Amino acid sequence: MTDEHKEKIIELRKIGIGYRSIAAALDLSRDKVRNFCKAQGIDGYGAEIKKKKEDYIYSKEFCKNFGARINEKPTGGRPKAYCSQKCKRKWEENHPTTYQRVCYYCRKEFESRVSQANFCSTKCYIRDRFWRKEDVEEVVRCLEEGTSMPNAPGWIRNLIMGIEEKETDGM
Predict the structure, then answer these.
(1) Cα separation of 72 and 30, whole Å?
(2) Is residue 164 over pLDDT 50?
(3) Terminal CA-to-CA distance of the chain, rounded, Å?
(4) What is the pTM of this model?
(5) Beta-strand runs (E) in 10-169
(6) Between 66 and 36, whose confidence is greater?
(7) Which of 74, 76, 149, 153 would be a feasible disulfide site paired with 128, CB 3.0-4.6 Å?
(8) Angle formed by the axes of helices 19-26 and 30-40, to 10°?
(9) Residue 13, pLDDT above cutoff 70
């Protein structure tokens, strides 16, 4: 392999061309091209080589919150984004992700940091979970009078309105 071949391989890899295409263009074997690229540190998928290396390196070496260098040993799995748990908590505190939800019990709209929250408060959860005899009497009274039920659990409301919940069986 000549120096011209080596320069051309590096040039083609940086624009995202694959081993087989380079080998066909330069009349070399795919394995020679691949081994040379591994030695130069430009191996992997062609699309990954196209990415800006500065952004890629910066995002993996520096803390997302503090900007300090992360002392990370090269291991498998997801790369660290924060230098410590304390730093991660501080980032989440300053950049909260909130979701707009509707309470399953009282039908009030509320914001939650949890994406699958069903209740606006513990009180609504307990009222829905441990329904009382007085609540049943109130629902029966509302049905007889034909008025709406202000505080009936979601499953009772759905039952009365004729909405069937989808059953999720593992079968």
Answers:
(1) 34
(2) yes
(3) 60
(4) 0.39
(5) 99-102, 109-112
(6) 36
(7) 153
(8) 120
(9) yes
